[in-house]
């Protein structure tokens, strides 16, 4: 994480996947099973066509957010945060990619 960044490892992974290939039209979900991802209120994030459309509509480029570790801010603006609240379990991180 860059100083002043906001997000967690799962949010960074989802944003990195999106930034790496904007042409990919699949869906990726990355989340912690404990309901927490870094020092945020989100369990993680997902990237699907609705997130890509929201980013385009708002003129958001994912790369500056990724480079400054502000993945939470990007997904908060595009509707890609997964918020479950604490789950009471901490098995692992879950990453699912479809497409």
Automatic annotation (TrEMBL):
Keywords: Oxidoreductase, Pyruvate. One of its GO terms (cellular component) is cytoplasm. One of its GO terms (molecular function) is glycerate kinase activity. Residues 4-93 form the MOFRL domain. Its EC number is 1.1.1.81. This is Putative hydroxypyruvate reductase. It comes from candidate division TA06 bacterium ADurb.Bin417. InterPro entries: GK-like_C_sf (IPR037035), MOFRL (IPR007835), MOFRL_protein (IPR039760).
